[in-house]
Amino acid sequence: MLRFLSRLAPVFMLLTFIAGLVGTVEAEPDDPTKDRPYLLSLPDLSSPRATLQALLDNGEAVEKSILEHGVPWLPRADTLRMIDTVNVESLAESRRELQGMFAAARLKDVLDHIELPPMSEIPDAAAVKAQNISEWRVPRTAIVITKVTSGPRAGQFLFSPETVARSGELYEAASETAYLPGRGINLYAEFRYLPGPMIPRAVVGALPDFLRLPMFGQALWQWLGLALVLAATAVCMLKLIGWPRRARDARPPALGAAGCRRDDYRSRHLRADGDRVRSQRLGPDA
Which of 32, 73, 101, 108 is most buried, most CB within 10 Å of its CB? Predict the structure, then answer.
């Protein structure tokens, strides 16, 4: 088995390298006509209506992009705009982008399960100013959009830190209900369980359904892939460690035989010399 894995490891490494090259070549090219640069297209977060609309619109754009091109290497502008709608200031800075992306994706999925009031009934910037509104709750849910009162984002309406913290619970609760008509793309699952650009999405889509089932936070095919990578790495390390030992232990047969003959020759001559010395000491009568 070990010999089979040692032969399979280089092939697996080569296929991984080729897949990486293909994924890089086939990665979605930058197209300014599809998505304006993030810094030139920041989302409108001036009211609960604007924030909710920003999450829905950019979430749909991300879903479409993932279905066509797979999960990109880096967050697209529409992904960053979607992340901007959630308040992650309470998290460590190193975790904000990833956790913000997950929270926004979970909230987008939750909203795809529930009936929202007409946009005209959700407070806009004019209503916020006229009525001094500081928060708005999605009816009959724990989803709250609040106005930030301090810091660099003061004045913006964002999904509250409490909503972000409970986004996992909301996601699990929504998963027990049906999607609204026309919905059904689970953006959170796309981010978490589907491959990046190195692995074509069609390859994963062709796998049996049970391999795409989530298990301990990852899809089953991801765990199997990890096991294969670790096995291939272990085999490669064993081969690298074993080569110096094998090179040290291996001696050419001819030299080995010659070495044995030299040792035998020396032993016989030493014994012969010792017998002559003993004979001379004892004399002819010995």
Answer: 108
